[in-house]
Amino acid sequence: GPPSPTVSSPMSPKISEPNITLPKNIKGNQQSKKPKIRSRSNSSTRIDTYVNESLDPARDILSENDERYINFNTFKYIIENALEKNINIRELCKQADVTVKILSDTIDLVHPLVKDKKTKSRLTRISNLLFQIITPDEENIISS
Predict the structure, then answer these.
(1) How far apart, in whole angstroms, are the C-alpha atoms of residue 83 and residue 132?
(2) Exposed / middle / buried, residue 130 (Cβ in 10 Å: 0-12, 13-18, 19+)
(3) For the region Disordered, what residue ranges are annotated (predicted)?
């Protein structure tokens, strides 16, 4: 029969795929336990001192590495900073790697333990702020 037409295939240049190596610091799902850093700052401001002492009763509960609550140092940091004028509490939570819900739960846990009126009212104010910004989705997250 008639000669079959030869499909002229141009020599396709071999494209060498770049060797893609994933950076090793990509965060997987493993919860890395952050080392507890005891910050020794000399600039202990007044608020720092009184918040520190008044939150002391909560120190034991919050240092048990319970996934449902924030560790003590992070909690203290958030409580000290949450009411600063230009602080966005959501951003603060993000920085501290904490969900609004967990912060809220932690405040509920700590509030009854705190005797100091100033700190108690501070906790209440933060709690109310959280209540205003928390979304139904966040409200219903059950942390496994």
Answers:
(1) 14
(2) buried
(3) 1-45
Asked if 101 and 107 touch (Cβ cutoff 8 Å), the reply is no
- Asked whether the beta carbons of 84 and 48 are under 8 A apart, the reply is no
Residue partners of 44: CB distance under 8 A and separation at least 6: 52
pLDDT digits (tens, 9 = 90+) for 63-110: 877 888 999 999 999 999 999 999 999 999 999 999 999 999 999 999
Please give the C-alpha separations between residue 27 and each of 31, 33, 103, in angstroms, as whole numbers. 9, 13, 23
Sign of CA dihedral 123, 128, 104, 113: positive
Q: Quickly count: other Cβ atoms within 10 Å of residue 73's Cβ.
A: 17
Closest listed residue to residue 121, CA positions, set 73, 74, 54, 59: 54
Give domain limits for the chain. 46-136
